[in-house]
Amino acid sequence: MEQRGRAAESAAPIPSQAGPDARRADRGEQTPARGEHTHSEPATPRVVRRHSVRGQILAALRSALLGGELVPGEVYSAPVLGERFGVSATPVREAMQQLALEGAVEVVPNRGFRVTERSARELAELAEVRALIEVPVMLRLARTVSAERWAELRPLAEATAMAAAAGDRAAYAEADRAFHGALLSLCGNDQLVMVADDLHRRSQWPLVSAPAVRRADLIADAAEHSALLDALETRDLTAIQPLLREHFAGPAD
Known about the structure:
Layout: H1 2-11, H2 20-26, H3 52-66, E1 75-76, H4 78-85, H5 89-101, E2 105-108, E3 112-115, H6 120-144, H7 147-151, H8 154-166, H9 169-185, H10 190-204, H11 215-233, H12 237-248
Antiparallel strand pairs: 1-3, 2-3
């Protein structure tokens, strides 16, 4: 009898002192995979960072730079600009750091950001580098890409014409870059497209003491997009190179 009692005690279940996964196993329940949670276990809160404010401030700053509201050579602090846009200094500072990478501003320690003072010589040098990169690519593409494929880019050229007609300098700058980016993307070289886009954006920042770009200048610049597509569609190789060189040196590029 004593032996049977001891045997019964050894067979009795021992209260589990293990964690919740072991207790689920005891009850025949499936243990959640790592990273999962059940309704009885609240999920770990996830902090989602909002990038929309930074993006909006970056767009506003670019517009202010292109419109001459931020003057070359002047220093602007993030807190002051934050008050202007109704936001904290943090998204302004982040946007300004991006503009510094693009060559539009430079960091002034303990003060803020100075709008870069660019010269006509710098603009000419950028135009020359762009021509060295883009002209050979466009001539090669003109020999291989079909007229139908070039025709698909007409809406992008029309978008630049619409922005020019509205006299919207910032909108024109973005539409202009989108058009040229789409042209170059046909070469299939992503690195080339990124380098060309960086050069293009740098060439769009206003010059020191330069007169404001007129609406008529933007319209003329946009018309060159259509002329370039005409030459590409007809494979007029003799027209492509001078068109691009003149376009790169234009008021909007």
